[in-house]
From TrEMBL, chain A:
Native organism: Evansella caseinilytica
UniProt name for this protein: Peptide/nickel transport system ATP-binding protein/oligopeptide transport system ATP-binding protein
GO process annotations (BP): peptide transport
Lipid bilayer topology: Peripheral membrane protein
Assigned protein family: Belongs to the ABC transporter superfamily.
Molecular function GO labels: ATP binding; ATP hydrolysis activity
UniProtKB/TrEMBL annotation, chain B:
Annotated keywords: Cell membrane, Membrane, Transmembrane, Transmembrane helix, Transport
Cited SUPFAM superfamilies: MetI-like
Topological type in the membrane: Multi-pass membrane protein
Sequence similarity: Belongs to the binding-protein-dependent transport system permease family.
Record CDD domains: TM_PBP2 (cd06261)
ABC transmembrane type-1 domain boundaries: 84-293
Localization (cell): Cell membrane
Protein name: Peptide/nickel transport system permease protein
Listed transmembrane segments: 88-108, 120-146, 228-250, 270-293
One Pfam family in the UniProt entry: BPD_transp_1
């Protein structure tokens, strides 16, 4: 699987937003590769550019205020950035699907679940309405919605949050996409429902052989569901590697900060929660050095002057830090501050 | 519905008796003698105590009798039903123009927010709501009837001369009457659409690969319709109640003219009947709008009396 041509290759992606108060460089030189059937997690705090990165793959950013300034998004050999709108539309929902954070607002309240599912199916597949309805029922059954024949005629407000997210997944997967982008799919759900939804996604991934981009700020979700991780900070990738490597040997100080601010299981030796001090930089301003330098407990003069490149410090493990190189390593303090 | 109408009937009755002027005196003219006027008052039943007149009026109403016109000597209901189809014709034409232009204009303005097109549409809407109807009507007559001679200036024409004749008579008044609703629809559509297009489910629709045209005209518009329907209900009620200015300028024999003439002649019975009829129209229109709300927004459930679910 690993040797195949990659499904998706994002190269040096740069996205900016224009507003009356200036231009925000929301994504700044992000690159990653995704193979068939793989799951990649993008983690980072709010405003780190993880959602923007994912949304720009489908080119769903608001066209009037945002622009893809550079880079390529190659999906099965086609550069999505340069694709005409008609071709792009045939990819959306068909080859690449997306589910969003809040299932309460991402389904259209004035159409039945069935209508929204059938619409998705008939947009990309030449089937009769009857056939589409049959498939819609199958999809609802597949995502674990009981009594799909009855539920299909109901409106979103007659569904609970978890059921709505299941319906959303059914819509997203109705055309068997090769890639599913899940933008914080469980953030708005109860903890118990979260686990169900993630399990469902994993199950369907195995069944339908699709790749997943999972955006989250919860490292716990990453450990359980992903093959690879990208850690983003202020629009840049600061560390990327396999989940196993990140779990055993995280290298970037920001990743350490993220780990320290996670709730640890009881009995773990480090039970204390440590927040990362400060706030992310204002992306309207040009950042000369490392974007994390201001908040980094290990920062030295060079960090404020020169932006570190993302370099491969060991096999399949890239880090953007002046002091985490193949030659030298920082000593990680147990608890900062 | 019945209590509303009873209250309206009572209020109209009281106002009619409070305003100065005596229908008997108006009918007989300034030369009539006091005795003549008194005789006439007796014949019209106006010499009876007001309370007695009121009871009489309400009891007749309950029997479906709107009374007899003091001036025309005809059944008030016949007079109204004579004029009402003309008003329906004019209102439907004006509503059609307003909807066909106002709503798409608002949608375009919303999808191209802050563009030149948006500014042009909004400026047009501003002019539309603020332009005096009588002025617009007269200008249209001046240009299209007097100068160009394309359309007749007044009247409704006759179906005997073919539908085309009525249609020609209809155009100028319908355009005149449509401006305010059109501008109102454009504004409310724009603001309602702007709110809807930033919702998550619009992003979902785009992510599914729905064409932008259908994203706007199916997914967004149906959600934006509720406030548009509210405004439409109000405008339709107003138009059906008779558009006094437009009907007067174009001598259109509709409800508005009927009421104005009746007030002039102190024809109590016609004023009472017509206003009551207009009240019925308001109530019925509102009922229709309420039913349409339900069709447009499945979250509205009248049985439980409140909106279900969260949004």
């Amino acid at each position: 699987m690993e040797n195949q041509e990659p499904l998706l290759q994002v190269e040096d992606l740069a996205v900016s937003f224009t507003s009356s108060s200036g231009t925000v460089k929301a994504v700044n030189g992000v690159s990653f590769t995704l193979h068939h059937g793989e799951t990649i997690g993008i983690v980072g705090e709010s405003g780190s550019g993880k959602s923007v990165t994912a949304t720009s793959i489908l080119r769903l950013l608001p066209p009037r205020t945002s622009s893809i300034d550079g880079g390529r998004i190659v999906f099965e050999g086609e550069n999505l950035v340069a694709l005409p709108p008609g071709r792009m539309r045939r990819i959306r929902g068909n080859d690449i699907s997306m589910i969003f954070q809040d299932p309460m607002t991402s389904l259209n309240p004035v159409f039945t679940i069935g209508n929204q599912l059938v619409e998705a199916i008939r947009l990309h597949q030449q089937v009769t309405k009857k056939e589409a309805v049959k498939r819609a029922v199958e999809m609802l059954r597949l995502v674990g919605i009981p009594e799909p024949e009855r539920r299909i005629r109901q409106y979103p407000h007659e569904f609970s949050g978890g059921m709505r997210q299941r319906a959303m997944i059914a819509i997203a997967l109705s055309c068997h996409p090769k890639l599913l982008i899940a933008d914080e799919p469980t953030t708005a759900l109860d903890v118990t429902v979260q686990a169900q939804i993630l399990r469902l996604m994993k199950e369907l991934q195995n069944k339908l052989k699709m790749a997943i981009i999972l955006i989250t700020h919860d490292l716990g979700v990453v450990w359980e569901n992903c093959d690879k991780v990208i850690v983003m900070y202020a629009g840049s990738v600061v560390e990327t590697t396999s989940v196993n490597k990140l779990y055993v040997n995280p290298l970037h100080p920001y990743t350490w900060g993220l780990l320290d601010s996670q709730v640890q299981a009881a009995g773990d030796k480090q039970a204390k929660l440590t927040p990362i001090p400060g706030t992310p930089p204002d992306l309207r301003n040009e950042i000369a050095g490392c974007p994390f330098a201001e908040r980094c407990g290990y920062a030295k003069e060079v960090c404020f002057e020169e932006k570190p490149e993302l370099t491969e410090v060991e096999a399949q493990h890239h880090v953007a830090c002046h002091f985490q190189t193949a030659a030298s390593r920082l000593e990680r303090n147990e608890v900062l501050i | 519905m019945i209590p509303t109408l009873l209250v309206v009937a009572t209020i109209v009755f009281i106002i009619n008796r409070i305003i100065p002027g005596d229908p008997a005196a108006v009918m007989l003219g300034p030369q009539a003698s006091v005795q003549d006027v008194a005789d006439m008052r007796e014949r019209l039943g106006l010499d009876k105590p007001v309370f007695y007149q009121y009871i009489d009026y309400i009891l007749n109403l309950l029997k479906g009798d709107f009374g007899t016109s003091i001036y025309y000597k005809e059944s008030v209901l016949t007079l109204i039903l004579d004029r009402f189809p003309n008003t329906i014709l004019l209102s439907s034409a004006a509503l059609f123009i307003a909807v066909m232009i106002g709503i798409p204009a608002g949608m375009i303005a919303a999808t191209k927010q802050n563009s030149l097109l948006d500014y042009v549409v909004m400026l047009g809407a501003l002019i539309g709501v603020s332009m005096p109807v009588f002025w617009l009507g007269l200008m249209l007559v001046l240009q299209f009837s007097v100068n160009l001679g394309w359309f007749p200036a007044t009247g409704i024409g006759s179906l005997d001369n073919g539908f085309g004749n009525v249609f020609k008579h209809l155009i100028l008044p319908a355009v005149t009457l449509s401006t305010i609703p059109m501008a109102t629809f454009a504004r409310i559509t724009r603001s309602s659409m702007l709110e809807v297009v930033s919702q998550d489910y619009i992003k979902t629709a785009r992510a599914k690969g729905v064409r932008e045209f259908f994203v706007i005209c199916k997914h967004a518009l149906k959600n934006a319709l509720t406030p548009i329907l509210t405004v439409m209900g109000m405008q339709v009620s107003l138009m059906l109640g008779g558009s006094v200015l437009t009907e007067t300028i174009f001598s259109w024999p509709g409800m508005g003219r009927l009421i104005i003439d009746a007030i002039d002649k102190r024809d109590f019975m016609v004023v009472q009947g017509a206003v009551l009829f207009v009240a019925v129209i308001f109530v019925v229109t509102n009922l229709v709008i309420d039913i349409l709300y339900k069709a447009v927004n499945p979250r509205i459930n009248y049985a439980s009396g409140k909106e279900e679910g969260s949004s």
